[in-house]
Specification:
The chain is mainly α. Helix 1 runs antiparallel to helix 2. It has one domain. It is built from two helices and no strands.
Length: about 60
Amino acid sequence: MKPSTKDQIKGDLHELKGNVKETAGQITDNANLETKGQNEKLAGKVQKKVGQIEKVLEK
C-alpha cells in the first residue's frame, strides 16, 4: 500500500475517533474531552490532506 493511501486511511480514522470523542464530550458535558475530539478531528483532516497531496506528487 502506498504511503499516500496509508495517510488518507489514518486521517479518516483520526477524524472518526475525533467525532466520537467530541460527541462523548458533548453528551457528558465534558469540555476537555470535547476539545480533544475537535483537535483529533482536525489532525485527521490535516493527515488526510497530506495523503492527497502525496498522491498528486506521486504521479
